[in-house]
Specification:
The structure holds 2 protein chains of 2 kinds. Chain A is an alpha/beta fold. Chain A has 11 helices and 8 strands. In chain A, helix 6 crosses helix 7, helix 8 runs antiparallel to helix 9 and helix 9 packs antiparallel against helix 10. The longest helix of chain A is centred in the last third of the chain and has 17 residues. The two termini of chain A are about 15 Å apart. The relative contact order of chain A is 0.14. Chain B folds into 2 domains: about 120 residues, Response regulator (Rossmann fold), CATH 3.40.50; about 70 residues, no CATH class. In chain B, about 25% of the residues lie in helices and about 25% in strands. Chain B is built from 7 helices and 9 strands; from the N terminus they run E-H-E-H-H-E-H-E-H-E-E-E-H-E-E-H. In chain B, the strands form 3 sheets. Chain B has a 4-stranded parallel sheet with strand order 3-2-4-5, sandwiched between helices. A 3-stranded antiparallel sheet of chain B has the order 1-6-7. A two-stranded antiparallel ribbon of chain B has the order 8-9. Chain B starts with a strand and ends in a 34-residue tail after the last helix. The chains are: A alpha/beta, B alpha/beta. At the A-B interface, helix 5 and helix 6 of A face helix 7 of B.
Amino acid sequence: MKAKTPSKLEKILAAGHLAVTSECGPPRGSDMEVITEKANLIKDYVDAINITDNQTSVTRMSSLAACIQLKLMGLEPVLQMVTRDRNRIALQSDILGAASFDIHNVLCLSGDHQSFGDCPTGQNVHDIDSMQLIQTVRMMRDQGKFLGGDDIKRPPKMFVGAAANPFADPFEIRVPRLAKKIAAGVEFIQTQCIYNMEKFELWLKMAGDRGLLEKVYILAGVTPFKSAGMAKYMKNRVPGIEVPDELVKRMADTPKEKQPEEGVKICIEQIQHLKEVEGVRGFHVMAIEWEEMVPEIVEKSGLYPRPSVE
Amino acid sequence: MIVADRKPIEEIIEEVKNHEKILILGCNECVTVCEAGGKKEVGVLASALRMYFLNQGREVKVDEKTLERQCDHEYLEEIRDVMDQYDAVVSLACGVGVQFMAEKYHECPIYPGVDTCFLGATEKRGLWTERCQACGQCILARTGGICPVSRCAKRILNGPCGGSAKGKCEINKEIDCAWELLKALDKLDDYEKIDSIKDWSTDRAGGPRKVVREDVQE
């Protein structure tokens, strides 16, 4: 696939390199230093940094503001956008705002339901869904048109991504859903955290059998366990995440003070395994509130130094 | 039908406590079926209010009446002759009936006695569930007879989202994922057709709506 946008992430993928992305959650306040500190920790070890959009429906600094900050630092942001909080006017408007700062990557999501966050009594918008947001960005970029049909002066040039969860139910819909996102115009996918390798590889194989892997870049999502408690929590409490019993046991059998180290070790083993799996074009390392571990994970997985593209 | 639920008695007392001649007005349609505002509930509420005023040592007249409907002029006219006997009405009709009453008898305060909840069905006695949000442009023909607008917490037209687990919605384990119901009905043949961006102008977004049928108007 040839790069169609100025996105550094797209260029790295198009050149055939395994890409590495990570993410930062904006602070629950207006101190931008939280973002600059997290970004400085990981910037040399990743190709692009996602900024989450009010994740788990908890109100935070806006993703767009934090992405602009990364851009001003000379870094490559991925603007996460959820359809929960903004209608089609606001979404298009923010896409243009991002484009005005030459933010070249967007991740189209529906967003967690507001009942999980700090404003459970609020309205949700869902004027369009994530599939339709993908279509919207592609239309704005490729046709240079607003949804209303008018021309856009200086259209956005964004590499368009979405999430995929091979582990959500029902499994048989997961590959058709990927196909649908590709048909909508998605160009890269960052997956949900993968722990069940077998199921992930089955999903990839089924996608490959339909010829989908030539049409989209799949970045495998990985998240290191910080503790045995976290492994158990992810297994039992987080919908749409599958953690095999042996991983929970391996964490639980490790003495408490060694558990973070073991979690990182498991994560590195997973990346090394997945590097050899056909269809994996890169990694999305989600070290939740543990960004300082990203350099070690990337380095020990043999993904450092990061390639440079012009 | 329109499904409503009974308002807490304390809330109703707070509204009517300073009145002296109160009419509790039921409706014989939807709110009767969902056991929130029919003749029986009118009786229950009237007894509770009489008890309250008795305990307060106050003499307050609390009368009961249930109309065939409160969303039609002709039935509301039935009480025109007696309305001057009351200084307050608690209407147990849905929000439509309460407003229609208030428009017709604006000299008398009309208080709502139920919370109007949704358009739904009776699954069994004591269990009513939502089926429709009256978006004004029915898409059920292309969604296998299951409405994602009313039955998906994110009204996603191209679902399911990542929060669907074991057939249930992430927001509540008692709510079926609309998109998994589709699978159960084997209606997934068209799954990969992308449903286009919806025109919400016929929904709440377009402002108060009207259906005009000149051919049947007199």
